Structure formats: C-alpha cells, structure tokens
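[09:14] KT: can someone run the structure on this one? pasting the chain below
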Amino acid sequence: MHPLVEHLHFARSEFVRCLEGVSEEAAIQRLVPMNCISWMVGHLANQEQRYWVERAQKRTVVSGLNNRVGYGQPASTPPLSEMWEAWQTVTAAADEYLVTLTPSDLLTTLMVDGKLMTENVGQLLYRNLYHYWFHTGEAHAVRQQLGDGDLPQFVGVLPAFRSDGW
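[09:31] RB: done, structure tokens below
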C-alpha cells in the first residue's frame, strides 16, 4: 500500500477516535457557523465517494450523499448513525481503489464529465488527508463547546516510521 494511503488510513482512524462516545443528540447540535458533527462524518464520506468511488471507479455506493452533506449545500443535521453507516460503506469502497495505487498512479488525472481534473490523484489524496485533519480539529472544537469532558488527546498512537522515509 502506498504510504500516502497509509496516512489517509491514519487520518481516518484519528477522526473516528476523536468522535468516540459522541451521542446522537450531541452529534446533531449545530454551533453556528460550524456544522454539526454528524454532517462532518457525512461530508468526509461524500468527498471520498466523489474522488475514489464515483470518479475513480465510476460507481456510487451511497445515493444522495452530496445533496445532504456536500460542499455548498444548505446546512443539515443528519442522524449520526446514518452518517457513520454511509462513511463505513464509502470508505470500504474507496479502499478497493486506494490500496491498489502505485507511485505512478498518483501522477494520473481522473475524468469528470469527460474532462480531466486539474489536480492529479496524488494531489486529491493530499486534499483528502488534509480535509480529515481540518474536520477532526473542528469536531474536537465542537465537542469542547458542547462541554464534553475527557476528550482524546491529539494525536494518538502514531504508525511506525519506515526506513524509506515515509
């Protein structure tokens, strides 16, 4: 597996760890202008579906996700359990593609509506990684504002450093 995909897996695991113990009720609390936690879960699933499932694999595994939690859509407060289910379905499907990536694949460009994207697969992978870290911090802030105690420390157990520099 390419090291950047390993980093994405770590970013995902930290996002999940950050949200352990969040209740359905807390997850739909919206502290304007921030979105609620359940929206963040669905929103990250939506990005992964768009990049790694729809564009890379030409399929959709969770219908209607973009309309509910996509960039530029009206604020929503979807049920957390539904968004976790969507996230798990999407990330499993995304990994079918991601775990096959080679260094040369990262330089390729995906198509959207018959046109090449402006960013290559490697850039999209970086964008996806950083998006996770952004929303992990935002979710942590929401939890603090909601008064959750005993939040996980940032960052948890790191993966082993490899001799090839990754």
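[09:33] KT: thanks! The longest strand covers residues 111-112.
[09:34] RB: yep, looked fine to me
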